[in-house]
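debug: dumping io for the single-chain case to check the tokenizer round-trip. Nothing else runs in this session.
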Amino acid sequence: MDPWSEAAFRQNQRWLTAYVLAQIGDPTAADDIVQDVFSIAFEKRGSFEPGTNFGAWLRSIARNLVLRHYEKRARRPVVAGEEAVARLDQIAAAAEDRAVDPAWGEARAELLRECLKELTDRARRLVRERYGLGRSPAAVSASTGVSVGAVNVGLFRARAALAKCLRRKGVS
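debug: decoded output
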């Protein structure tokens, strides 16, 4: 995939935002910094060497922007120490690998299908209508004959059960 395509930016945005947020603790500032990372990366795309690690390059830009963020605010970093930042780099690199590996997404989708089979018929129907068909809770309520509140509670419980099942299967 071309690292300069919109899809590549979207693919990297999630893990990069988590990486920055873990360092500064402010979601709004993290979003701003990630936007700046992509802007700088695009401006300096000529200096990126194809075949090298795109995610590591983005992280180096992000690290510099995080440092600048703290310098402007004369505050101490949320994450202190080289060891902590190195560990965040490792975690971000693993998240990047998963984000850009289509096989990982397919394997996770298969595990999710297995977990869906463990839900009750009612919970599976709520999940299918809400997320599979994209219906609002009110529309799901109308089609199932249960209150909107009951739909929301049922969906909450279904998501919790799916998350628990995925964790049991080793997906975080």
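debug: round-trip ok. The CA atoms of residues 1 and 44 lie 18 Å apart.
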